[in-house]
Amino acid sequence: MSPRTRVTVMAILVLLLLAGSAVYVQAFYRQKPLQEVQTDKKIVALTFDISWGYETPPAVLKVLKDHQVQCTFFLSGPWVTQYPEIARQIKDDGHEIASHGYRHINLTNFSKSEIKAELMKAHQAITAVTGESPRLFRAPNGDYNNNVIKAVYECNYRAIRWGTDSLDWMNPGISIIVDRINKHIHPGDIILMHASDTSKQTAQALPTIIENIHSQGYEILTVSELLAEAAANP
């Protein structure tokens, strides 16, 4: 091989490597946790994380049923196993079942294989109790890094975060929770709330939150419905 040919071959190999890297970067960028969808339509997803307790979840479900609203619930594996009747009620009420992992830990502290084990252990628990095979995952504390994201997608999940955080878990006061959502809500938003027993003001704030969302002309959807609507109407 002549020196000139060798240089040409090396140049082609470098270009192919760069092209492959660009495709990987673009693909990985698309796999970042979803916080909202890009849309001009007044649609939002109301979501709830549950990791412990049996008093707040039924109270939240009653409000949602009274207002004929379907939401997405991110459930932890141990909670589903401990309170199977409530988990099945969430499904039977027409809400979307999603995963909140197994242990309520910061997954960024673990290896990819350990993260995948957490996800699949939760998946098995949720499926066994509800009969649903969830495909949406929200990391405990919204704690993501590249390792977590790769593990999530290798387990055939979609990584979800949030656009608006109600901060209801801090129990700052009912009016503060309501006002925070009113202030930050926007088209395509994913709203984070909690239905664990430690969130003591969520059920009380929820009726006003739903009424305010509707009065502003928004439709409340599940996360999967939000994704489908945005895809159908870019």
Briefly say what this structure is.
The protein is of the alpha/beta class and 234 residues long. The protein contains nine helices and eight strands.
What does this protein look like?
This protein has 234 residues and is of the alpha/beta class. Helix 2 (56-66) packs parallel to helix 8, helix 5 packs across helix 6 (146-154) and helix 7 (174-184) packs parallel to helix 8. Strands 1, 2, 3, 6, 7 and 8 form a six-stranded parallel beta sheet that branches. The longest helix is centred in the first third of the chain and has 28 residues, at 3-30. The chain has helices at 3-30, 56-66, 77-82, 84-92, 112-130, 146-154, 174-184, 202-215, 223-232; strands spanning 43-50, 72-75, 96-99, 136-137, 158-159, 164-165, 190-194, 219-221. 50% of the residues lie in helices and 13% in strands. The chain is built from nine helices and eight strands. The chain folds into two domains: 1-30; 34-232, TIM Barrel.
Would you list the SSEs in sequence order as H and E?
A: HEHEHHEHEHEEHEHEH
- Spell out the CATH superfamily of the largest domain: Glycoside hydrolase/deacetylase
Helix tally equals: 9
The shape, in one word, is globular
Content-based structural category: alpha/beta
Return the CATH class of the largest domain: Alpha Beta
Low-confidence stretches: 3-30
